[in-house]
């Protein structure tokens, strides 16, 4: 499989511009990848003080993000996984789109274990974890805090995916997070494709260093700061 993680920082207040930049980076990544993973809430930024601020940028699964990334997926014949704030009726979710190579929506996964920055606006997912059988391998999806959830890890161990697509906004705690991520995923045997953001967003700082890990082995890694495309094949 050939995979890529896109490290990206959205410009708050410029959703259209952020989505345009994100799509361009995704297109660059997908030029030589079967699977491209983008960060959690990639085009909007992550930290919002009030629910109405999230409501202003939330969208249905078949919305502008799918339209922009669907065009890339179709042109490059790639699978794309992207975090976004989902609106479904009166409910808001921290979700991830899975876009198929024909540009259509394959599925949506909703983050099950919420972080404190999600809790005042997001409804948790119902634990209906996602593993897709694709021509390039079995692809599971988890979002950020899910990797801290024993329920998710047990499911991952049972599902035995080839790859875990991992959109994240991982908080910078001043330490290398790769060994922790590797330890959480190792029992499943999955290659981890982690796409992170970086820098400050509200009260939080994020760690960058997007990575593709096979067990403890780093196949490819990004910087701690700056937009980047991280690629590996195995």
Break the fold down into its secondary structure elements and pairings.
Elements: E1 2-7, H1 15-30, E2 35-37, H2 51-55, H3 64-76, E3 79-88, E4 91-99, E5 105-110, E6 130-134, E7 137-141, H4 150-159, E8 163-167, H5 178-185, E9 191-195, E10 198-201, E11 204-207, E12 211-214, E13 217-221, E14 228-233
How would you concisely characterize the structure shown here?
The chain contains five helices and 14 strands. By secondary structure, it is an alpha/beta fold.
List the keywords:
5 helices; six-stranded mixed β-sheet; 33% strand; Nitrilase/N-carbamoyl-D-aminoacid amidohydrolase; alpha/beta; 234 residues; 14 strands
Structural overview:
The chain is α/β, with parallel strands linked by helices. The chain has one domain: Nitrilase/N-carbamoyl-D-aminoacid amidohydrolase, CATH 3.60.110.10. Helix content is 22%, strand content 33%. It is built from 5 helices and 14 strands. It has a 6-stranded mixed beta sheet with strand order 5-4-3-2-1-14. A 6-stranded mixed beta sheet has the order 6-7-8-9-12-13, covered by helices on one side. Strands 10-11 form a two-stranded antiparallel ribbon. Strand 1, helix 1 and strand 2 form a beta-alpha-beta unit. Helix 1 packs parallel to helix 3. The longest helix has 16 residues. The radius of gyration is 16 Å and the shape is globular.
């Amino acid at each position: 499989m050939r995979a890529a993680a896109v490290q990206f920082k959205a410009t708050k207040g410029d959703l259209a511009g952020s989505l345009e930049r994100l799509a361009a980076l995704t297109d660059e990544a997908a030029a030589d990848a079967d699977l491209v993973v983008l960060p959690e809430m990639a085009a909007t930024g992550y930290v919002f003080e009030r629910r109405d601020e999230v409501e202003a940028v939330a969208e249905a699964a078949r919305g502008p993000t799918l339209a922009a990334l669907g065009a890339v997926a179709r042109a490059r014949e790639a699978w794309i996984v992207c975090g976004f704030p989902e609106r479904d009726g009166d409910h808001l979710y921290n979700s991830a789109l899975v876009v198929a190579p024909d540009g259509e929506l394959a599925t949506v996964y909703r983050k099950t274990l919420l972080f404190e920055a999600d809790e005042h606006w997001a409804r948790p997912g119902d634990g209906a974890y996602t593993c897709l059988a694709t021509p390039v391998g079995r692809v599971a999806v988890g979002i950020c805090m899910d990797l801290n959830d024993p329920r998710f890890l047990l499911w991952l161990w049972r599902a035995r995916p080839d790859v875990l697509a991992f959109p994240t906004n991982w908080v910078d705690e001043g330490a290398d997070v790769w060994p922790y991520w590797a330890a959480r995923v190792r029992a499943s045997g999955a290659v981890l494709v982690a796409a992170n953001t970086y820098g400050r967003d509200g009260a939080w700082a994020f760690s960058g260093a997007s990575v593709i890990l096979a067990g403890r082995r780093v196949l490819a890694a990004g910087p701690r700061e700056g937009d980047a495309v991280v690629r590996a094949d195995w």
